């Protein structure tokens, strides 16, 4: 099992949908620092995406943000002892 928990000190955040789009409702006009996080990116790539954005009546879009995948990222992980998981025995059960 794996989990990702992100804690932010602001009510202005969003998670993109499967197509990569997002919307942050209720953001007042002003200047804000924007940070981007993605599990499959390297910290240095994400740091390069940090920027100040200005929200106003005429500027309410962040535009396109290109997030680079870490080519060495893998979903595989070790168990709590740092060892590979033992494959479950074959039960003969087949999913319908």
- Mean pLDDT figure: 87
Largest sheet: 2 strands, antiparallel
Global geometry: elongated
Contiguous helical run count:
1
What is the SS-derived class? little secondary structure
Helix content: under 10%
- Please report the distance between the alpha carbons of the first and last residues: 24 Å
Question: What percentage of the residues does DSSP assign to strands (E)?
Answer: 5-15%
Strand order of the largest sheet: 1-2
Could you explain how this protein is built, in words?
The protein is low in regular secondary structure and 96 residues long. It has a domain at 28-59. The protein has one helix and two strands, in the order βαβ. The protein has one helix at 43-47; strands spanning 30-34, 51-55. The chain has a two-stranded antiparallel ribbon. It is elongated. The relative contact order is 0.16.
SSE layout:
Blueprint (H helix, E strand, L loop, with lengths): L29 E5 L8 H5 L3 E5 L41
Antiparallel strand pairs: 1-2
Based on the model shown, name its key terms.
96 residues, 1 helix, single chain
Summarize the structure.
By secondary structure, the protein is mostly loops.
